[in-house]
Design brief:
9 helices; 19 strands; binds 2-acetamido-2-deoxy-beta-D-glucopyranose
């Protein structure tokens, strides 16, 4: 009887999912998701490529209490960890099993209803990667529905974009207003539509309705960081470069894949003293990862992290970059796997400048995500900060998150201003040979709020 009831619920859920699961994501925050859940899990005999939409009969119920700040406690009293993944889903690891699912939502025209006490069907397996299953979660206490407007709905994105004159005006105003950094028109952006520029800046799935703030560093962390060098750059460590070349994501919201592969590439170099210098396939991520949304966006935590651990990544030549969504062709190339991954600070919302510095120094480059304002697109050199210069011709721009790779940090010799050194994926002709520097220590455009580390197995 119980099984029949659960299956019925699931059917309703599948029917809703079928027509709504396409547009912008849910807005479920820590406060909405923390609390007591029941996970309904299928038989643990699935293939790892299982399409969990049709998850089959529920065979197990697991009760888990998600507590502050990242404690997951199961019904037997075992303690594990959990984290939000943006405001779009959450991952739980307890009693030697790990679970990930997207939060449930319904889109009806411009209105998005987040159903934060429920998940879409997700994936679970032993921490040793055996016994795959599908599951979905229900919070024991129902939460109020939350409705927001899809910021991209009814925007006339396809037809036009800013003109050359619009770009020139913006650049002039930025350079008039301040002299910490220099703006210039970036030729390749001139002919793009708003929709294309949106992909270049991150893709609509990377829209973030609620950004966490950095947490204050502990004394212990500050003491450790006090022992680090004043400046540090993985591109030049005693004359040796551990960072792979700059690439170009083109017109595809795949920055998260470039940030993720860039991190794994650099860390393999670090871990093998540059005897292995792989370039990993970003197209494999765009085409094959169900933990991201192809050219509409995604998250390094799930790509360098969970996808890298569960499925592994392949060399570039195995699936060369095309810059558009496409069918996944499964190959037999050698796969590199991720051994460990985490949000820096231990969970989404636990980040700060000091934790980032330490992780960068100890393990290699780290993935970060920040808000791309209009002025950033025209960055040419210097230490970036948001100038406040906006232009109506760049509307309908909505702030989205762009994922990039922090490879170092330093202090400006003249002004004493602290900065991060960051690798972008807009080609070598953008910025400082494909890189930019950005103000450090003040969470500039959110760059110190969401950072990820992942350790590859060379
Ligand atoms: C999974 O199955 C559903 C329902 O049959 C289908 O609509 C969806 O396209 C499938 N997804 C993938 C990635 O195959
Ligand atoms: C969306 O919400 C608005 C305001 O609540 C409402 O007026 C409108 O009818 C809704 N649109 C749809 C398609 O449900
Ligand atoms: C997302 O949820 C948070 C917390 O409930 C709320 O503060 C924020 O306004 C929401 N964002 C949108 C766009 O509705
Ligand atoms: C790492 O590589 C450098 C440059 O090839 C070499 O000089 C150095 O000895 C290597 N270090 C180790 C520990 O092998």
């Amino acid at each position: 009887m119980e099984a029949i009831k659960i299956n019925f619920l699931l059917l309703v859920c599948i029917q809703i999912t079928a027509y709504c699961y396409a547009d912008t994501p849910a807005n479920c925050t820590f406060a909405d998701v923390s609390g007591k859940w029941t996970f309904y899990e299928s038989a643990r005999n699935k293939n790892k490529h299982e399409n969990c939409t049709l998850m089959g009969q529920v065979e197990r119920k697991i009760k888990i209490d998600l507590q502050y700040p990242n404690i997951a406690k199961d019904e037997f009293g075992n303690f594990g960890t959990w984290t939000m993944v943006y405001n779009q889903g959450f991952e739980v690891t307890v009693n030697e099993r790990t679970y990930f699912a997207w939060s449930y939502y319904i889109q009806d025209g411009p209105n998005v209803t987040s159903v934060c006490d429920k998940t879409s069907p997700g994936w679970s397996h032993d921490v040793t990667l055996r016994h795959w299953a599908c599951f979905y979660g229900r919070k024991q206490r129902p939460m109020p529905l939350k409705v927001h407007r899809d910021p991209f709905h009814s925007l006339l994105l396809e037809s036009s974009g800013p003109t050359h004159q619009d770009f020139s005006n913006l650049v002039d105003e930025i350079n008039r207003k301040q002299n910490k950094w220099e703006a210039a028109v970036h030729e390749p952006f001139l002919t793009k539509t708003h929709a294309e520029l949106l992909k270049i800046r991150g893709g609509k799935m990377s829209w973030l309705a609620h950004r966490p703030q950095p947490v204050p560093p502990t004394r212990e962390l500050m003491e450790k960081v006090a022992g680090l060098p004043q400046s540090f750059d993985w591109r030049n460590l005693g004359g040796i470069n551990y960072v792979s070349p700059i690439r170009n994501q083109a017109i595809c919201g795949s920055c998260y894949a470039f940030s993720s592969m860039g991190m794994l590439e650099a860390r393999v170099r670090v871990q093998t003293n540059n005897t292995q210098t792989p370039i990993f396939s970003t197209q494999d991520i765009v085409s094959c990862s169900e933990l991201s949304q192809g050219c509409e966006g995604g998250f390094p935590y799930l790509v360098a992290g969970r996808y890298g651990k569960d499925f592994g990544v392949v060399p570039e030549q195995c699936n060369p970059y095309q810059g558009h969504d496409g069918p996944c062709t499964r190959d037999t190339c050698y796969r590199h796997y991720t051994a460990r991954y985490s949000y820096i600070g231990g969970y989404y919302g636990g980040c700060n400048e000091y934790a980032m510095q330490l992780a960068l120094f100890q393990g290699g480059p780290i993935s970060v995500a920040f808000e791309v304002h209009n002025d950033f697109m025209s960055y040419k050199g210097g230490i970036y900060h948001y100038t406040g210069v906006e232009s109506p011709s760049f509307n309908p721009f909505v702030l989205v998150n762009h994922a990039v790779l922090v490879v170092g940090y330093g202090v400006d010799g003249e002004t004493g201003e602290k900065y991060w050194i960051v690798k972008n994926s807009w080609g070598e002709s953008w910025g400082e040979n494909g890189y930019f520097r950005i103000r450090r220590g003040v969470n500039e455009v959110g760059i110190e709020s969401i950072a990820v580390q992942a350790t590859p197995i060379p």
